[in-house]
Amino acid sequence: MTQEGKNIIVQHLTRRFGDFTAVDDLTFGVERGEVFGFLGANGAGKTTAIRMLCGLLKPTSGRAEVAGYDVARRPEQVKRRIGYMSQRFSLYDDLTVGENLQLFGTIYGLRRAALRERTEEMYRKLEMEPLKNQLVGGLPPGWKQKIALSAAMLHRPEVLFLDEPTGGVDPLGRRRFWELILDAADEGTTILVTTHYLDEALYCNRTLIMADGQMKALDKPRTLMREYGARDMDDLFGKLTRSTAVPDTTAKEGEA
Ligand SMILES: Nc1ncnc2c1ncn2[C@@H]1O[C@H](COP(=O)(O)OP(=O)(O)OP(=O)(O)O)[C@@H](O)[C@H]1O
After folding, report:
1. Is residue 57 lining ligand 1, measured as CB closer than 6 Å?
2. Is the pTM of this model over 0.80?
3. ABC transporter domain: which residues (predicted)?
């Protein structure tokens, strides 16, 4: 594909399950180092879209390219270049922090020396050295979440997919977690993150709002709020997910 600088390119991506269309004709691109939010209620199609972009589920029609590779034709190349963290944190409760990281590093094909170096780096960065011999099962959700993020990033992926990574974490923990996400983006990682905490959209460079598998809007969150005359993200979301939503042109007047 020809769109320079884009790390994710999605064109008319569609997935049906029988007669039901879970993802309906999505088209967008994500820049390298961008934090791109997927906002939608339960069942909007976010996870289905992510599974296609990770090369885990074949599109019914349309196409997508991630880190330079077609997700349907070259899923193995895609998987090597991405990190994925699901809402369930994907960790093994009965292994220690160190064992979990070792396991994920091995799955991602890291050699022993690289794995050791990156694990040490993660311990330092997240100040979790004292936890390395503790079983993951006994840790609070905020820590599990940071460890799951570390596991998904051990192999330094170009693109990171985070599917509701902050579910079940308290507000302070969510804020700290977002600092980690933004740090990773500053270092050049492209991030696609889904959430149904609407306030989290404000951390994203751009947000795609989804309902019933379809894209209802896509832009910088504050631009969208202005465009639709919304007080906050909740208000915007309500306006956009009602089928009659139209941009509020009067709200735009007089604004820069
Ligand atoms: N394998 C499947 N077979 C049939 N229907 C499916 C399948 N996977 C997902 N769906 C349906 O597709 C729709 C979108 O689901 P999806 O999990 O993508 O939504 P979501 O936006 O991620 O929601 P959530 O926040 O609950 O995870 C839902 O109605 C779901 O029931």
Report:
1. no
2. yes
3. 8-237
